[in-house]
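FIELD: query
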Amino acid sequence: MPHLQGTRTVRSALLPITLLGLAVAGCTRESASPSQAPQPPQTHLTYIAEWVGEDAVIGRNPVSLTLADDRAYGNAGCNHWFANYQLEGESIRFTDIGSTRKLCLDEIMQQERHFLDLLGKVERWDISNIDQLRFWPAEGKPLRFWPAQE
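FIELD: result
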């Protein structure tokens, strides 16, 4: 029995040391190298929306976005839309937003109004950990886009 007693004493002494080591390791940074800024959204490439805020995109016509120089344009689900945009680092703003004026089903028109409203409230962009382009309004869920498949 003395052998078992000594083993318990060693284990009891190692437990606090092990826990302290884990606590200190948890406080260290993941990477010592500085983080790289994400590449800005590509211009002259069409992106297709998957989500407009909290709502999945509906309808046969995709909600799309293309950035070209200082202009943005695409399809809002029913109508074509267009806007100016300013991109500075991770900040992006869409201004002077307009669209054509066709009528579609009420659900599509509601989605279109929501998309254009959110687009006007966008303040920043990022790329998610699954490489999805996201445009974030001041409050709420983002507009989420994938590059169009050619």
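FIELD: remark
The CA atoms of residues 6 and 93 lie 68 Å apart.
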